[in-house]
Design a protein that fits this description.
Length: 571
């Protein structure tokens, strides 16, 4: 089956193979083998040349023999030889370890600190109001945002910076331990830091007043949006490639001029619990300027101050009711790209990550912001253990080029299968969501995913299996050909009757309800017929269902040039 992945491998069966397949099988053959789906791959050779090893032509196609068997792999016809699930840690980097008030000490402290908390709340509101008004005044009438903020406006912003120190004090950060010093801006124009709490940017605003890179959604936040605009924020939509490209260009432009403040980025892209580093985004490293890493720690015994999977209101309340909250900030030596050769952003980020992990005495994993989105979606669904759906998405996206939206859609599908408290799904729930009847093919589809061979599947297996199929170079072409073959009367739409007839070779006889269920799944716009767009979109959302149309590829050709072009696009 390895040959199926090679786009230059011969793709048509030889004359000897065709002669062999045309002979009826013997009784012994029936006893030893079930009918099977065989993918023969060979070039268009002259029959007489097949045994003489002559140089093949460049023309190639794929042909599938007429013996159908799902004993091995129901997806071999698109080049799949199976997949492996990447290993991962069992650590949840977003877990706050003290989400609830527990123990006698914490309860007593809460009662003692309640009056103090009220005073802190008043101080917080006062500092926020004064800082907000000062920022509004500094921004009033300023329209030339492409150039640095005028000096007199920066002096006004000192009022806001002092107010942020008051806000830190109100949260219980009466003193903050520092180690090392910020490097001069002209030596290291970019600072990167790990991201543990919403306290991090408040501290850096007071300490450095840098330009930050932030999500576009922050602009509409009350008070916060106004204050970060004064920092000449660079907005980015992390799900838009063009937005990310524009942000990198802005980082380059502002880092190259000493007239702008230094830039601060949190390359992890989200907050963690500080017990490890997660994968870095590369926006800070692409410009190639020297970077000063900074690590932030929040030592604690009874109260975890990290903004993991915990609400902001709960975290603020807990901070207000502590005697004191500890914070340590360490400025590390500058990390520069290699002088001997142009270092890639990936290697530069890895080198910086190692320096920060070494200082924090932690490891760096392949988790990403998308893992946090998966965790949040699982928690919102009511699952009792959402940490099971954290799968180190940076590694999976690197291997399979899976988009964030596709990953979230696949989680929706998996959650609909009602995974148990251990995150396992049984075959009956798998079939229910994909609207399949139990038969030889559907069982083999489930076994294809069940890498652990325990009769159950977990989300990571389901995700990687789906991503693996989407990543096959022949997948898109197979979807289009399956539509063409199912459109029996060639009117560019598939009726329910045509759809039922199209499924019968793979699934056998189906009841009206079984056909109707699958038809409604494919008919995305509910107009009573399946367009090509409906068909392909459904298969992209449910790539496992491509196996239902495998009989249509018997003795059919798939254009390898198109497949090669598709492969170049995804790579």
């Amino acid at each position: 089956m390895a040959a199926a992945k090679d786009l230059k491998t011969p793709l048509l069966p030889s004359s000897d193979d065709q002669r062999r397949l045309s002979q009826p099988p013997s009784d012994a053959d029936h006893q030893l083998h079930n009918p099977q789906l065989i993918l023969d791959v060979i070039d268009h050779l002259d029959p007489s040349a097949s045994s003489n090893h002559e140089t093949p032509t460049n023309e190639c196609s794929i042909s599938i023999n007429t013996q159908l068997d799902f004993d091995e792999n129901p997806y071999g016809f698109i080049g799949s030889t199976g997949f492996e699930v990447p290993g991962s840690t069992t650590v949840d980097p977003f877990r706050n370890h003290t989400p609830k008030i527990e123990g006698v000490y914490e309860l007593v402290k809460l009662l003692i600190c309640a009056p103090i908390a009220l005073a802190r709340l008043v101080l917080f509101a006062f500092c926020l109001a004064i800082g907000y008004l000062a920022t509004k005044f500094a921004l009033s009438g300023w329209k030339d945002k492409q150039n640095p903020m005028p000096k007199w406006r920066c002096r006004v912003m000192w009022i806001t910076r002092l107010c942020t120190r008051g806000i830190l004090f109100s949260f219980g950060y009466h003193w903050i331990q520092r180690k090392g010093k910020p490097a001069p801006r002209e030596i290291a124009p970019i600072i990167v830091s790990n991201h543990v709490s919403y306290i991090d940017p408040i501290f850096f605003f007071y300490e450095l007043f840098p330009t930050i890179v932030a999500s576009e959604s922050h602009d509409s936040m009350p008070f916060v949006g106004t204050i970060i605009r004064a920092m000449q924020v660079i907005y980015v939509d992390r799900f838009s490639q063009q937005s990310r490209k524009n942000a990198v260009n802005e980082i380059k432009r502002k880092a190259s001029s000493d007239r702008f403040p230094r830039l601060l980025l949190f390359p992890e892209g989200t907050t963690t619990n500080g017990r490890l580093l997660i994968s870095f985004q590369h926006g800070a490293f692409i410009p190639g300027y020297p970077i000063q890493p900074v690590v932030v720690r929040y030592p604690h015994v009874h109260f975890d101050q990290s903004w993991g999977h915990i609400s902001l209101a709960t975290l603020m309340f807990r901070m207000f009711t502590q005697f004191h909250n500890f914070m340590e900030v360490e400025y590390l030596p500058i990390v520069s790209p290699s002088e001997h050769h142009k270092e890639s952003a990936v290697r530069f980020a890895e080198k910086t990550g190692r320096a920060m992990a070494r200082s924090l005495n932690v490891v760096q994993t392949s988790h990403s912001f998308l893992d946090y989105l998966l965790l949040s979606k699982a928690a919102d669904s009511g699952h009792e253990n959402p940490s099971l759906f954290v799968v180190e998405m940076a590694k999976i996206q690197q291997l399979f080029h899976l988009s964030s939206s596709d990953a979230l859609d696949l989680l929706d599908r998996f959650l609909a299968m009602n995974p148990d408290s251990s995150g396992n799904v049984k075959i009956q729930d798998f079939l229910r969501v994909l609207r399949l009847k139990r038969c030889g093919l559907s069982e083999k589809m489930f076994e294809f995913i069940d890498v652990g061979r325990n009769g159950k599947i977990i989300f990571k297996e389901f995700l990687v299996a789906s991503a693996h199929l989407l990543n096959q170079p022949l997948f898109q072409q197979a979807c289009e050909m399956a539509f063409t073959e199912s459109d029996i009367n060639q009117d560019h739409y598939i009726s329910e009757q045509e759809f039922g007839a199209s499924l019968m070779p793979a699934m056998g006889s189906l009841s009206t309800d079984e056909i109707d269920g699958l038809f409604n799944l494919f008919d995305e716009d509910d107009d009573g017929r399946i367009s090509k767009g409906d068909f392909v979109n459904c298969l992209r959302k449910n790539p496992l269902l491509i196996a239902l149309f495998s009989p249509h590829f018997m003795n059919k050709d798939l254009d390898q040039n198109a497949a090669a072009g598709y492969l170049e696009e995804i790579v």
